[in-house]
Amino acid sequence: MRLFLSFTLLLAFVVLLLAFPALASLDTSVGSWWYARNDWLVSLSQQIGLIGSGPVTLLLAMVLACWFARTRQDYFAALLIPAGLLGSWGLNYLAKSLIARPRPHWEHLMQVDSSSFPSGHAMAALTLAVLLANVLIRHYPRQQLLWLTLATIWVLLSGMARLVLGVHYLTDILAAYLLAGVWCCLLVRWYSGRTTPSGCCTQS
Length: 204
Hints:
Elements: H1 2-19, H2 22-34, H3 39-51, H4 54-71, H5 75-99, H6 120-139, H7 144-164, H8 170-192
Helix pairs in contact: 1-8, 3-7, 4-5, 5-6, 5-8, 6-7, 6-8
Organism: Chitinilyticum piscinae
Pfam family, one: PAP2
Keywords: Membrane, Transmembrane, Transmembrane helix
């Protein structure tokens, strides 16, 4: 039921985006407010964009996969994190190809070479944060609030950075969160069915 609701919300969001020009005005207003607010925020956003880039994110996912496999013997987590990230990129590529929305009109403060909708950085940030937080909570449940807080901060910072750099609209980021959220629902359900609450692999 939750998965069906997520798909419905995503579809409704895309329909609203395409059908109501008023959202374009909201995108422009929010984007103009955030765009290049000040030098230190631009610098921070560029660093966040670099950390969230494909090569760095994939390297981090592989390091985490090796760590969970070696230290926790959680081989499902070792598969979950990099596979989830790769799947997120695939979904993002498909959505960008189908919708082909142009980037915002203002000068981009970071190099981009694809269409705008949805944000690939935001999708990857949410996917990695949600999956990692879920795995950490299963292994270290006492620190649940810490993992959730860190994941939320990273996801919000990643979205903010795309607005500051002028490379995405607000609706690009919100759609990315929705699409990545649906993807993570599937992955977390798969992972939860194959591990115990302590993170140990179940016997097949």
